[in-house]
Amino acid sequence: MLLEITPRASQPISLTPLIDVVFILLLFFMLSSTFSKTRQLELEAAASGKQSMASEVYRLLLLTENKVDLNGTVYPTDTERFAQRIRTIAEAHGSVTLAARSAVKVQQTIHLIDNLRAAGISQLNLSPSVAE
Which CATH architecture best describes the domain 57-126? Predict the structure, then answer.
């Protein structure tokens, strides 16, 4: 008993599913990418034998997003009184040691560092986080 197998006509392979997958991947990578530029924060390494030019060292503790403790006095960061105090420290070539509470976000600390640099603070030291 011989069976005859009739050859099927080969069907063309459709590229539509492949194009769909490539389009979905392209869409995924476009939506998941970040278009904002990252910035670099310049920090100088401390040297143990280096003479300090600072006449006085000020301790600045970032309490919340907009409150700081400067040598025991609490200032809101968005007031002119705080800005004037920072400018006075910068003119006296004072050194600022900055610490933050552990609940404070890193971006808030970087924002404060940017504000201190803009006010003219040239010697800025970072201290470990402080528990609440």
Answer: 2-Layer Sandwich (3.30)
Residues 100, 83, 116, 95, Cα dihedral to 10°: -80
Q: How many CA atoms lie within 13 A of 89 on its CB side?
A: 26
Residue 62 and residue 99 in contact, taking contact as beta carbons nearer than 8 Å: yes
Give Cα 54 to chain centroid, integer Å. Answer: 28
What Rg, from alpha-carbon coordinates, does the chain have? Answer: 30
The alpha carbon torsion through 96, 116, 107, 79 (nearest 10 deg) reads: 110
Handedness of CA 124, 126, 127, 131 (dihedral sign): positive
Residue in this structure with the two tokens 């050194």, named with its chain if needed = 95
Q: What is the pLDDT of residues 36-82, one digit of tens each?
A: 777 776 666 655 555 555 467 888 888 887 888 888 888 888 888 88
Question: Which residue has 């940017």 as its token pair?
Answer: 114
User: How many CA within 13 A on the CB side of residue 80?
Assistant: 0
